[in-house]
Design a protein that fits this description.
This protein is α/β, with parallel strands linked by helices. It has two domains: about 230 residues, 3-Layer(aba) Sandwich (Rossmann fold); about 240 residues, Rossmann fold. The strands form five sheets. A six-stranded mixed beta sheet has the order 6-9-10-3-11-12, with helices on both faces. A six-stranded mixed beta sheet has the order 18-19-20-15-21-22, with helices on both faces. A hairpin with a 2-residue loop joins strand 16 and strand 17. The longest helix has 16 residues. The protein is globular, with a radius of gyration of 24 Å. This is ABC transporter, ATP-binding protein. Pfam families: ABC_tran. It is a peripheral membrane protein.
Length: about 500
């Protein structure tokens, strides 16, 4: 079969950084070519070169055997190359049809032919098996359906190649199944696809071949049937990972966190206990009320009944500051929006919750601050050339470590992790798990919300399962099976 696209020796350089170094691999028609690697491995940079957002400094790209001599986002689209990013590029106030044909409207004379656009968009959606009226405003659609609109938009421009960048990060299980069904249809039509994801289990479900990238280099490309999870993980990390989930179970100590009968807008009568030396998982479907409960526990959101205790002392309602002072902290699901101040440096983010501790009497002791920050950067292996590096330039895994450093410096003992490894590569995941294990070995208590069932099973001493805003079961981690969690998760839907 003739190659649809070929990268030959692609290089891309930024000041002080070799982002891509002699990268070569290819894509065939009707293939799902999965690209995996740590944050900063070069995956997104390579796709930006393909899309024309960046110009390669070395090498060439061949499309159907012919070199692409000039490139830009517009030229890339004209050549049939379409990008579908994690943050969807749609106009919420416009209809599906208007979004599908935005920038290449169907016209009747000088005017946009709305009826023709709606008819064509309806046809595209029908072909994809999507039952939705093209006149529907995009803002009234779920994330999964919006993604289908992006795909319809690509097909309206006769896409030959579609790049999916972390397409399932915000989708429910049913929406993921629907996406995979559509990808199967695209394969049958001969569309070549690059698929970037940190969810490694997905590559074995939909991938034809897998390419591993590391430090801007092409490490390997292999048929999926010749790969296993261990080989993929070790290729990504560049080292052997004997046990991805390293948690060492020990005898639990005293109860550090008690949630008693908590009721609020999205949860009802929730009770949980976490002891010193324990990692307690909270599982459930999207919409089960897990995140809402944790936000109320930490005082971000209000609740109408119940109480929260840390070390036997009642935590005041609606006061994250007081909860923090009592030794509790929340690592939120959206670390970029709620966990960090992205325009601030590693140092500034790290000390923001412990300014009074580090600077008693209100006198700023910058040298002491820097010494303490460096101590935690070393302890957590925070990869950065300087503590003055801005948080927005850090990888997802490093950002998560800075959030953890912030709370460790404030002497926290009760950690609420909400989706601790979402959007983080496997190498960084391993580091986060090791850190969590270290924390509980030192007597901390961790309550971990996760949609990753393998993470829940691999790292939890006990598991609470939530469904419909309530706790529907508690399972001992040593006896748990995947089916037990799933059965409970669906019990109150």
């Amino acid at each position: 079969m003739e190659k649809l696209l070929e990268f030959r020796g692609i290089g891309k350089y930024f000041p002080g950084v070799k982002a891509l170094d002699d990268v070569s691999f290819d894509l065939y028609p009707g293939e799902v070519h999965v690209i995996v690697g740590e944050n900063g491995a070069g995956k997104s940079t390579l796709m930006k070169v393909l899309s024309g957002a960046y110009t390669a400094d070395a090498g060439e790209i061949l499309l159907e055997g012919k070199p692409i001599t000039r490139n830009s986002p517009r030229i890339s689209e004209e050549l049939g190359i379409r990008m579908i990013y994690q943050e969807l590029n749609l106009v919420p106030e416009l209809s599906i049809a208007s979004n599908v044909f935005l920038g290449h409207e169907l016209k009747k004379g000088f005017f946009v032919d709305k009826r023709a656009q709606e008819a064509k968009a309806d046809e595209l959606l029908r072909d994809m098996g999507i039952q939705v009226d093209s006149r529907t405003l995009v803002k009234n659609l779920g994330v999964g359906t919006q993604q289908m609109v992006e795909i319809a938009k690509a097909l309206s421009k006769n896409a030959k190649i579609i790049v999916f960048d972390e397409p399932t990060s915000s989708l429910t299980d049913s929406e993921i199944r629907e996406l995979f069904r559509i990808i199967g249809l695209l394969k049958q039509r001969g569309v070549g696809m690059f698929y970037i994801s940190h969810r490694l289990e997905e590559l074995f479900e939909i991938g034809s071949r897998v390419t591993v990238m590391r430090d801007g280099k092409h490490i390997l490309t292999e048929d999926i049937q010749n790969m296993d999870m261990t080989r993929v993980i070790e290729g990504i990390a560049g080292r052997k990972i004997e046990n991805l989930y390293p948690h060492t179970r020990k005898e639990a100590g005293e109860a550090l966190l008690e949630i008693r009968g908590l009721s609020g807008e999205r949860f009802e009568d929730v009770s949980m206990t976490v002891h010193a030396g324990e990692i307690v998982g909270v599982s459930g479907l999207v919409g089960a009320g897990r995140t809402e409960t944790m936000r109320a526990v930490f005082g971000i959101d209000s609740y109408r009944a119940g109480e929260v205790l840390v070390d036997g002392k009642k935590v005041p309602r609606n006061s994250p500051e007081k909860a923090g002072r009592m030794g509790m902290c929340l690592l939120p699901e959206d670390r970029k929006v709620e966990g960090l101040a992205l325009p601030l440096s590693i140092r500034e983010n790290s000390v923001i919750s412990s300014l009074k501790l580090l600077n008693p009497g209100g006198i700023v002791k910058r040298a002491q601050e820097k010494t303490k920050v460096q101590e935690y950067m070393d302890r957590l292996s925070i990869a950065a050339s300087t503590m003055e590096k801005l948080a927005r330039f850090l990888s997802g895994g490093t950002q998560q470590k800075v959030v953890i450093a912030k709370w460790l410096m404030s002497k926290s003992r009760v950690f609420i992790f909400d989706e601790p490894t979402r959007g983080i590569d496997v190498g960084a995941k391993s580091s986060i798990y090791e850190l969590m294990d270290e924390l509980v070995m030192q007597g901390a208590a961790i309550l971990m919300v996760s949609s990753d069932l393998q993470e829940i099973l691999g790292m939890s001493d006990r598991i609470y399962v939530m469904s419909g805003g309530s706790v529907v079961g508690e399972i001992d981690g040593s006896e748990v099976e995947q089916s037990m969690v799933l059965n409970l998760a669906f019990s109150n839907v």
